[in-house]
Amino acid sequence: MDKLVQGIAAGGSIRVFSAITTNTVAEAIRRHQTSPTVSAALGRTMTGALMMGSSLKAFDRLTVKIESDGPVGGITAEASPGGKVRGYVKNAVAELPSKTNGKFDVSGVVGQGTFYVIREAGFDIGFRPEPYVGSVPIVSGEIAEDFAYYLAKSEQIPSAVMLGVLLQNSEPFVTASGGVMIQMLPGANEHLITMIEDTIAHAPHLTTLIDGSTHPADLLEIALGEIDFEILEESNIAFECTCSMEKARAMVTALGREEVESMLREQKGAAMNCGFCNENYSLGEADLTSILSELG
Ligand SMILES: [Zn+2]
Fold first, then answer.
1. How far is it between the farthest Cα atoms of the chain?
2. Angle made by CA atoms 97, 42, 184, in degrees to the nearest 5
3. Tens of pLDDT along 133-177?
4. CA of 77 relative to ligand 1 center, distance in Å
5. How far is the CA of 242 from the centre of ligand 1 (A)?
6. 213 half-sphere exposure, CB direction, 13 A CA radius
């Protein structure tokens, strides 16, 4: 089971988050059949969204949306309370050659554009308040730097973010995935962030660390170096979508009698696909007939 931990460091002046998302990202990749570089980009975005959204309350939702002009076209990851995340990309099969250092060209596949964070509160209890939307230009496209830039510019939280997805033999099979997010609280010693950035810069590559780690706390230990930290909360995380056969059926019902009759006549059924998780739902003649009898 994938895990996320959150805690404090340096006597409470830093908030720390860390996650191992290997199975969660593997499930997203399996569902969307993404190319290796797009898998890395989607996995990093989902991991970042989970850490950023880990303080969500019941009925809250945090969406990270990258709209860009690179081959992938766009990436969306949505985190919900209880460590659930779902995500998708515009062009799953986009691909570019690896960079000269052998790393996936994530920034190339993402390109230029805008990094959005949308926070919604209470969206599922009958009222839909205006979502809070923050955005910054994409500064790197490698995703981790874009999360850090967003936190610094849009939320005035100096941060350090590491995200990594390791694929087996560069095929879209996830060997390891995870990340670390370090947020400085107001009044934190400015030298701390420089110290952490320096530790991170000299740490082995994140994916190598995740590959050898069984718990997110191991990642924090490496990212924080000498700095003391305390884990306050640990939770399970997983890929989970909110779609269901029941909702698919309700959507068809909402189309109304005339539309359902024409579906029954022309297609003898209805087929739907959930963009978030790529699940297919199909209703047959019997289902449509029963919807019609409910519509009266
Ligand atoms: Zn779905």
1. 70
2. 115
3. 999 999 999 999 999 999 999 999 999 999 999 888 777 789 899
4. 12
5. 6
6. 30
Query: pTM above the 0.70 mark?
Result: yes
Residue found under tokens 């941060």: 159
Ligand 1 center to residue 237 CA distance, Å? 17
User: Ion ligand 1 — residues with CB under 5 Å?
Assistant: 241, 243, 274, 276-277, 279
Going from the Cα of 247 to the center of ligand 1, the distance in angstroms, rounded, reads 10
Q: How many residues does the chain have?
A: 296
Helices 36-52 and 144-154: crossing angle, nearest 10°? Answer: 30
- From the candidate CATH numbers 3.55.30.10, 3.40.630.10, 3.30.420.40, 3.40.50.300, the one assigned to the domain spanning 2-239: 3.55.30.10
How far is Cα 196 from Cα 47, in angstroms, rounded to an integer? 20
CA nearest 122: which of 179, 61, 33? 61
Specify whether domain 245-295 bears CATH 3.10.20.740: no
Q: How far is the CA of 278 from the centre of ligand 1 (A)?
A: 6
Instruction: pLDDT band for 276, please (50, 70, 90 cuts).
Output: very high
List the domain boundaries for the chain: 2-239, 245-295
Ligand 1 centroid to 116 CA: how many Å?
21
